[in-house]
Amino acid sequence: MKNYRIIAALTGALIAAPFISGCSDNNNNSFVNGTAETEITSADETETAPQTEEKTTEEATAAADDFGTPDEDCAQNRPQLLYILDSGDYVYSTEKDGSDDHSEVFVKDDGKGGKTTLDLPEKSLLLHTDGENIYYYSPDEGLCVYDGKKSKLLSSETKSEESVSPRESFFFTGDRIYFACDTSKGTVIKSMDYSGKNDRDEYNIEYHGARIVGNAEINGEKAFLCTYRIGIAEHVRIFTDKDSFTEVNSGDSPYIVDQWLYYIKDRALRRIPLAGGSEEKMTEAGCTCFCLYNDKIYYADSETVYAIDKNGSSSAFITTDDIGKCDFIAGISASDGRLFVSGGTGASGRSIVEVDESGKVISTISEI
Q: What is the tens place of the pLDDT at every residue in 283-297?
């Protein structure tokens, strides 16, 4: 496989404007002292909470000198603002010019003013690139690959009738593609090679709508993590083999970083050790998306991106006013020593800018 040059973007939950308007921008200038919290374990009427030992109990104060470094596989499988090809071209989605219904198109952008519209189906979702080919999800077909000229369906089994986000249903590694399939008994995690062949069952979960978090190494042992929801409670299942697993309570947008699992819960960024331990609260309420890059944590509320350094100091990094024509922050990304921020307005309008590590806008890639 080629060397991946993928933007590790974390677009979070800022797609819908009503959600954004409900987010607080109350942020401290240092890490938050932890307080004990009761984990949510309520279940809906059809499913009950798993009868397995859970590792997390209460919050603690975050250790400011150890954020961890994202694994390449986990970083490249985060939701993306855009993708970078080996040619240096960007690939991203944007609103079609002159569209009254906010229809979306996919473009290849050379960064010098040259843009080409790609022949991809409407309402598709970009998922991955190997530097040349683009992997995307088509609601009508499933997982497909586009070589710049034509598309090919990899597996019809990947087509989902569920409302689960397709991004969280796939996990791309060096030689295998993992994908979640809903069944009458719950969810099965399968894998296949990049030709769409040699598929096999990997893990089974007795709950519907399970998604993939990624792979990890915990105390020297390989593990695979999946997440599922019961009522309003989010759970992560840690498989050490097909039949052996443990459970932890978590939150939205779970992200494996070294020996940590980061996530958003109660609109605050938190983390917990994968090997077990206390939950640590990293920010106050208001966090809607986050990114770890160059020994810092970047996180956003509705209008501002903040940076936390290893001393625990938090400062404003960039705001919607710096991006221009934007009402909210839609995402943060980092790759190859470059930082990207997306701002949005309305239901679909998006801008993407590149910024330096001081928060200054270097270039505008896509503009509303």
A: 987 899 999 988 899
